[in-house]
Design goal:
The longest helix has 54 residues. The strands form 2 sheets. The protein has a 6-stranded mixed β-sheet with strand order 6-7-8-3-9-10, with helices on both faces. Strands 2-1-4-5 form a 4-stranded antiparallel β-sheet, with no helix packed on it. The protein is 63% helix and 10% strand. Among the domains are: 261 residues, ABC transporter transmembrane region fold (Up-down Bundle), CATH 1.20.1560; 127 residues, P-loop containing nucleotide triphosphate hydrolases (Rossmann fold). Helix 4 runs antiparallel to helix 6, helix 7 runs parallel beside helix 10 and helix 9 packs antiparallel against helix 10. The chain is of the alpha/beta class. The C terminus is likely disordered. It contains 19 helices and 10 strands. One of its GO terms (cellular component) is plasma membrane. InterPro entries: AAA+_ATPase, ABC1_TM_dom, ABC1_TM_sf, ABC_transporter-like_ATP-bd, ABC_transporter-like_CS, P-loop_NTPase, Type_1_exporter. This is ABC transporter. It is found in: Cell membrane.
Length: 586
């Protein structure tokens, strides 16, 4: 942990040098007050030298002021280094999370990942700001004072220093248990964050089913687990401090006994003043150890948080740009699925969902995918966006394998409109510009008008600057969908994916959406995924999937005449129209 933290602070040498210089000055000034005390007891008091009282008092005050100045300098410099380091760690962690593939997010709860970026990094911040730098300060102070005490009295100091390996052994024994305990604490915090995120993000579901008490009970159970984990960690931490204090008091008892014996002998080895000064040095020597014992708890908490952070940082994305990956430049927009085999599990253990699947999306044409739930329709969309990599085979755009191009360039060339609209908390304008922030105001307005969205946007309280709430909660389903289409139009993609884009809309909203889609799809290669056959009757080609296999292909009339699976789906949706056409929806 310390070596990794050092990598983050090594670029901040000016601040570190200033902090260490101030720390060295503090260590040197620590000797002044005990020496002045010794001089006052051994020389000023016996000689009744009143003239020295003010200089000694002034020396103590000046030393105190200098200690304050250097202490402030050291603390602020170390804190600044710590804050910069934590910012660097948090930014790196967030950037790494953004680079991970969809399979990772399928396995992890959002609340748990939020806990790692917030709670775990905040815990590490305490260690960086106060812990690591405090340990360095105390180490310098400890070494300086120990050397001086050896110079003053070798016998006493040698015995005292012999106790410190025992303290380190105690720290070693308790450290592992504390770390394990605090890792459990961090995991219970992550569980609570996950529960909180789930319940608040789905508050409408909770209210709809009057499940408030169940959610309260679940959160209380997780809170109880967190309490027990904290108490278990506190038990170990509470035992460690008294154990260290006991060893320190053993050392103090030895100094009092042996030092007093030396002073009473009167052979000059120890005087009353030097005895008092030596006890002051002993307290200075013990202060770093005492602070270290208190820091042990923080260190182990930070170590547990650090383990979880590094666990995430060491996760490599399964889908990543290859070395030398090129930008995708779409020409005609032909998409080819060639002998594609894929499943969501482990290729060595699980059966594939798609097996040797072949499909060609003709340039500038609309291809519709229909079939039962679980047939693999949305999976094809995910593979085209390269959320996942195929197990075998290849997917290409204009002859370029998707694995040979950068993910960013691929996704910039593909526009997607889904049943569950993907909107962010913010204004209408911010959501429209999300896919193309550099677009001009005229381009923005043209896209909104083409998507039949301009009129309702202008009617909003603040027009394009109206806040739409989390996930667009203040808009209707049709309005949100038209915003999604406008955003896709503004991005001007070469390929369009429509995944159940009109499945949850009423007839009036669907009519407006279909009108907007005609503008969006014009001249673009399009893949439409739908259960409602009324939305795909005008597609240039309709492909029927079952069990991950292509079983039928043709246009609407051809598939009806064929009398296969498509006709079965049609008759199930429109039982009154077995001998007629599927009704148009304008």
């Amino acid at each position: 942990m310390f070596s990794r933290l050092f990598l983050h602070v090594r670029g901040q040498w000016p601040l570190l040098l200033a902090a260490w210089a101030a720390t060295g000055c503090i260590a040197a000034l620590q000797f002044v007050i005990p020496r002045l005390t010794q001089y006052a007891i051994d020389h000023v008091i016996p000689k009744s030298d009143y003239n020295m009282l003010l200089p000694i008092a002034g020396g103590v005050m000046l030393t105190a002021v200098l200690l304050g100045v250097f202490g402030y300098t050291s603390s602020y410099a170390f804190a600044k280094v710590g804050q910069r380091t934590v910012l660097d760690i948090r930014t790196s962690l967030y950037r790494h999370l953004q680079s991970l593939d969809m399979a990772y997010f399928d396995r992890k709860r959002t609340g748990e990942l939020m806990s790692r970026v917030t709670s775990d990094v905040n815990q590490l911040q305490q260690m960086v700001s106060a812990g690591t730098m405090g340990i360095l300060t105390d180490a310098v102070t400890f070494i300086a004072i120990a050397c001086f005490m050896l110079y003053q009295n070798v016998q006493l100091t040698a015995v005292l220093l012999a106790l410190f390996p025992l303290m380190l052994l105690a720290a070693r024994l308790y450290g592992g248990k504390l770390r394990s305990s605090y890792r459990n604490v961090q995991e219970t915090v992550a569980d609570m964050s996950g529960q909180l995120q789930d319940s608040l993000s789905q508050i409408r579901l909770v209210k709809t089913f009057a499940a408030e008490e169940r959610e309260n009970t679940r959160f209380a159970e997780l809170g109880e687990a967190n309490k027990e984990a904290n108490l278990a960690a506190t038990r170990f931490s509470a035992l460690f401090g008294p154990a260290i204090d006991l060893l320190q008091y053993v050392g103090m008892a030895f100094v009092l006994a042996f030092g007093s014996w030396q002073a009473m002998r009167g052979n000059g080895e120890m005087t009353a003043g030097s005895m008092v000064a030596y006890l002051a040095y002993l307290r200075l020597l013990q202060n770093p150890v005492r602070r270290f014992s208190r820091l042990m708890s923080t260190m182990q908490q930070s170590a547990a948080a650090y383990d979880r952070i590094i666990e995430t940082m060491n996760t490599s994305p399964q889908v990543a740009d290859r070395d030398g990956a090129r930008e995708l430049h779409v020409g005609t927009g032909e998409v080819v699925f060639k002998e594609v085999t894929f499943g969501y599990g482990d290729p060595s253990k699980d059966s594939p969902l798609l097996c040797r699947f072949n499909l060609v999306l003709q340039p500038g044409k609309t291809t519709a995918l229909v079939g039962s739930s679980g047939a693999g329709k949305s999976t094809l969309a995910h593979l085209l966006l390269r959320y996942y990599d195929v197990w075998d085979g290849a997917i290409s755009v204009d002859g370029m394998d998707l694995r040979e191009v950068t993910q960013a360039s691929l996704r910039r060339r593909i526009g997607i409109v889904t049943q569950e609209t993907m909107l962010r908390s913010g204004s209408v304008r911010e959501n429209l510009l999300y896919g193309r922030p550099e677009a001009s105001e005229d381009e923005l307005l043209q896209a909104a008008k083409a998507a039949c969205a301009h009129e309702f946007i202008e009617a909003l309280p603040s027009g394009y600057d109206t806040e739409i709430g989390e996930r667009g909660v203040r808009l209707s389903g049709g309005q949100k969908q038209r915003l999604s289409i406008a955003r896709a139009l503004l991005a001007n993609p070469a390929i369009i994916l429509l995944d159940e884009a009109t499945a949850s809309l009423d007839t009036e909203s669907e009519a407006l959406i279909q009108q907007a889609l005609q503008t969006l799809l014009h001249g673009r290669t399009c893949l439409v995924i739908a259960h409602r056959l009324s939305t795909v009757r005008s597609a240039d080609r309709i492909v029927v999937l079952e069990g991950g296999r292509l079983i039928e292909s043709g246009n609407h009339e051809e598939l009806l005449e064929h009398g296969g699976r498509y006709r079965s789906l049609y008759e199930r949706q429109f039982p009154q129209g077995k001998q007629t056409e599927i009704p148009h929806e304008t």
